[in-house]
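Final report, Chapter 2: Outcomes

The project's central promise was a pipeline that accepts a single protein chain and returns its three-dimensional structure in a standardized token representation, suitable for archiving and comparison. That pipeline is now operational. To close this chapter, we reproduce one record exactly as it appears in the project archive, with the input sequence first and the structure output second.
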Amino acid sequence: MDREKIETAVRLIFEAVGEDPSREGLRATPRRVADMYEEILAGLGRDPRPLLATTFEEHHKEMVILRDIPLYSLCEHHMLPFHGFAHIGYIPRGRIVGLSKLARLTDLLSKRFQVQERLTSEIADALIDGLAPVGCGVVLEAEHLCMAMRGIQRPGARMITSAMRGSFRENSATRAEFLAIIRHHTRGE
């Protein structure tokens, strides 16, 4: 990441909107913004496959679900955050992965310029590539600040996207079970 270019760009934005980048409250902001981008875009160019490389032999043939995984990403259209929760389920084919890896996968793929639709598919595709499960399902629900604080200004509206692969797509009963479980118990209800 070219921190110097980011800092220069932030100073230029301040000047373009009529602010003084040398005033006390803004002087260190270009450095802080560069720090922020380095952190929130840490997934750029990183391959998610190594996260799923360590698996464990387990002949569990039922659904495994991790829900309410917090996610934070940056909308590529307005460079504003969107945030919410990911719900991930899969049916193992002889191998399972540590649950923290599902959260790490969500985090890694979220830390880049994104649209929610692509992020949902990327998580599902990484699971298929990395675990070769019988099937998997991913549902993301998120509030987009580009819609909440600008434009139409509808805070609280959540976008929901899903990606189903393998048996989750092909078998309506499997899909329904996954959706019922994540719907029934969300965030302390």
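Archive annotation: The mean pLDDT is 95.
This record, like all others produced under the grant, will remain available to the consortium after the project formally closes.
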